[in-house]
Design goal:
Blueprint: H1 4-13, H2 15-28, E1 34-42, E2 48-56, H3 61-72, E3 84-92
Antiparallel strand pairs: 1-2, 1-3
Length: 96
């Protein structure tokens, strides 16, 4: 299967893109911080075939939609494994 570490590496690779979205929202709402929990299915091709916002404590629907749109485009790399569904938390905190 795909290891947690492999999945983490991909999220880290795209972290700057997700934070660009977050920082744009932060300018509109400087108090915005929290966590989004995503549920996603990664196919053997590395494509994301299913993605949903499982929960969020941020009250930022526009940001959630943008994050989902971006994560849908992630490429986890083709691998000879079964499709896997994971729950992945993303913490959004302003840079100190």
């Amino acid at each position: 299967g795909r290891s947690d570490e492999e999945i983490q590496i991909v999220f880290d690779r795209y972290k700057a893109a997700l934070y660009r979205l977050y920082n744009r929202e932060l300018r509109l709402n400087p108090a915005l911080r929290g966590q989004m929990v995503l549920r996603l299915t990664i196919e053997p091709s590395g494509a994301v075939s299913f993605l949903a916002l499982q929960s969020s404590d941020m009250n930022a629907p526009a940001l959630a939609e943008q994050v989902l749109e971006r994560v849908r485009t992630f490429d986890f790399g083709a691998k000879d494994v079964a499709a896997i569904t994971i729950v992945y938390p993303i913490d959004f905190l302003p840079a100190a």
